[in-house]
Amino acid sequence: MSFEPKLRFLPEGKEGGGILPWVIAVMVYLCTMATASGLGIYNAAQDWSADLNNSATVQIVQADRDQRQQQAQAALALLQATPGVASAELLSDDDLRSLLEPWLGTGNVSDDLPVPALIKVDLLQGVRLDLDALSAQLAEVAPDARLDDHQQWIGELSRTAGAIAAAAILAVLLIVFATTAIVVFGAQARLASHRDNIEIIHLMGAEDDVIAQEFRYRFMYYGVRGGSIGFFLAAASLLAIYKLASGIEGGLVQEMSLTLTQTAGMLTIPLITALISRQTAGMTVMRALARIM
After folding, report:
1. What angle do CA 45, 47, 52 make, to 5 degrees?
2. What distance in Å separates the CA atoms of residue 193 and residue 189, rounded to the nearest whole number?
3. 3-state secondary structure string across 113-135
4. DSSP-derived secondary structure for 15-45
């Protein structure tokens, strides 16, 4: 199917569309940024939840250093012998210091600071442990042990990610609605400005669909032009943000990256914008012609 209209009657000098393609570019820019942000946060939340679901933490909260180490070794031996536990590792003082220094400041973690012993536990994929029974077993060998399976954190993370995803979807829908409204107003304005020419060619036998096809063609062009500009600017902005944030420790940027399928889907945004512009302009003109002709 060819998008080229059979009848070209709109002035060629107006092919640029004035400010309309630039307004569409702004909308596509905002839509792309909102979509990328929502998908990135969703991906990061999924990765974090998966990691937390397959791990647990045991803290030995005991002020006396010697007793703390004794209980930590006893808890470590129990965990390593527990079916379903892939690995258990007692973090060293240097590991604990590296975890606390971002919050307390470099050099502020002294040796006499009562830091709990921490055991990192990795669980086997697909294995569900009886955490209540494991907690009871830990209490026998290490009375000051506290088992945390991160379920509260996972629940809060899921709720937060869901709220952010819902906000991103709402933002995209509002942007699509605003873009559609802009195209409607633009088509009505062009129809009104060329009404005399349209009435003449209509009297000469041009059908409404033939006239509307010219508007579909022009507004699809505006959508392609504005959508491409907006998407290019959004891609450049996202790349700049990625480069600036790539130095953040902890792999945050990598976890918020988009998958190949998501990236390919976002590449269709300019095309979708062009199709929305085309169809919206055509429907607007057809309805207007039915009233005035």
Report:
1. 90
2. 6
3. CCCCEEEEEEECCCCCCCHHHHH
4. TT-TTHHHHHHHHHHHHHHHHHHHHHHHHHH
What does the mean pLDDT of the chain come to? 80
**Can you list the alpha helix ranges (DSSP code H) found in the chain?**
20-53, 65-80, 93-104, 131-141, 151-193, 195-203, 208-245, 252-255, 260-266, 269-292
pLDDT tens for residues 222-267? Answer: 999 999 999 999 999 998 888 877 765 544 455 567 888 888 899 9
Please give the average per-residue pLDDT across 99-116, as a whole number: 63
The amino acid sitting at 279 is Q
* 49 CB-near residues (< 8 Å, 6+ apart): 154, 157, 158
How far apart, in Å, are the Cα atoms of 120 and each of 69, 109, 185, 220, 233? Answer: 15, 20, 60, 57, 43
